[in-house]
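Ticket #4471: structure output looks truncated?

Reporter: J.K.
Steps to reproduce: submitted the chain below (625 residues) through the standard prediction queue, then opened the result file.
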Amino acid sequence: MDNRPLADLFEPADRKRWLSLVETALKGADFEKKLVSRTADGLRIEPLYGPAEPVAQPVRAPGPWRIAQRVDHPDPAAAAAQALTDLEGGADALVLTFAGAFGARGYGLTVHDAAGLATALSGVMLPLIGLRLDAGGRGLEAARWMRDVAAARGEDFSAYDLDLGIDPVGVLAASGTLGGVWKEIAPRLADAITELGAAGFSGRAFLADGRPYHEAGAGEAAELGAVLATAVAYLRTLEASGTDLDTARDRIAVLLVADADEFVTLAKFRAMRRLWARVEQACGLDPKPLRIHAETAWRMMTRRDSFTNILRTGMAAAAVGMGGADSVCVLPCTQALGLPDAFARRVGRNSQIVLLEESHLGRVSDPAAGAGGLETLTAQIAEAAWDAFRAIEGEGGIVASLSVGKIQRRIEAVREARAKAVATRRMPLTGATEFPNLAEKPPAVLDVAPVPPAPAANFGSAAAVACDPLPSLRLAAPFEILRDASDAALDKAGRRPAVFLANLGPLAAFNTRASFAANAFAAGGIEAITNDGFEETEALVTAFKTSGAPLVCLCSSDALYAERAVEAAGALVAAGAGTIYLAGRPTDLMEPLKAAGVHAFLHAGCDLLALLDDAIRRALRSPTR
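Returned output as attached by the reporter:
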């Protein structure tokens, strides 16, 4: 009897043997196309990595990240009630989001002085929580109000774990105006921070915010490059005012976006720490942990089937928690629909509580250390981001680069490629482009009117730096516009735009393509009228006439298409079908089908957005049959 360990009975598992097995499984298919993927910035992701040596890098301070909750109700008293509910429910940090700020999403706290801010914070024990201000162009005003609130309470300003969130560069990127000239604004900002320091402030004053770049479509390297360039600009501002670099770096924090691509997001946050450590070393400083805030991505949020946002934000929160974020703010699942209610806020908060208290993700400082894939991806992102940072520096710095549109143009190319991936469903969005539910009931949001836009930032200068503002976009928005048009038609006429599925033959022949077509048309708000299939063209035509649908889509197998599709298309045109689609792409039949009246072909990889936009326009202008 062989008493050797079981593992010894098998050949050693090495990459060469694995590749030979992969080649067998691929059956001649291209390894690169099938198994190698790439990030938005073109960074290569292999299907398999071996173990790696951990790379020493700064990490989050021991312990869990802070659970941050937005306070964005326009009414200060209602905002205070929100804050207390959130803190009692498990949050230990607040983000005071002011009206007019980039991240306010049309709402935000409406206060005009320290008294209003005091009302919004009434009952909150400020020395016990983390607090970040998100005031956009009113950052200095809000910071001074915060100082006055501390004085009125008789509390030590230095006892607050406070981030003032002052970010004029982010305001420039998002709004297109700086409200002044940078060389004049920078020393005023430094003087204001010195003034606040005299009152006891010792937290982070500046925030290098990645949201404007991410929402405009930037990839991970471009976002990090812009954030790093912004942080360095603030570091220079403080140094020029006489602040020593060791103190200056402690006045800077960053905010990065947490996306649902969990591995790339995790690696991005780790890369940020490496990049900042590289800057510190260049300044002659020993690296120390950077304060990194995270907010889940606005770009990935959907208005339709909004509960799927819970899955997206949950994955994002887990990724950045493991990636080393100091605080994580999860956008409530209904954020794109209006001002979220208590339920949506609670779900967003509880997702983090589950990650921390049940999954214990905060117990390990850097769980990705030594994982071959994540170490490689972190290094790739860091190097690509450093190149992006150097490009910005070569253009004169972040303000100069934005002013001449260099950053905007680079982001635009990535944004267009991602938009194409969404339009063709190579990048599927559950609930929007995949598995849409036309019968869904909209979830509840608070009955609060949006807040009018705030005036542009003004730093007291006659001249002002200006640039093309970066757009704030959600990936699902183009499809949601079509769904809105469908809803409007339903409200007006009592029925949605519809497509009659002309199913040819038995169920086994048409079912796959009929299901594909129904799902695809529903992504544009077009309801599919289906059936059990037709063996005779006459019965097909009769059913089409009865349906009253302005659109038709032929669905069947390639074999039956070859036998019946041209005849069926001709008969449908004769029966009054104005627009006919065909599910699939039968190459040899395309010209005869077009001649018979087929308008377009619905298939995997087609530009579904363009097809649906055309389809719903045709349906809405067709007379009711």
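Triage note (M.O.): checked the attachment and the full token line is present. The two ends are 81 Å apart (CA to CA).
Status: closed, working as intended.
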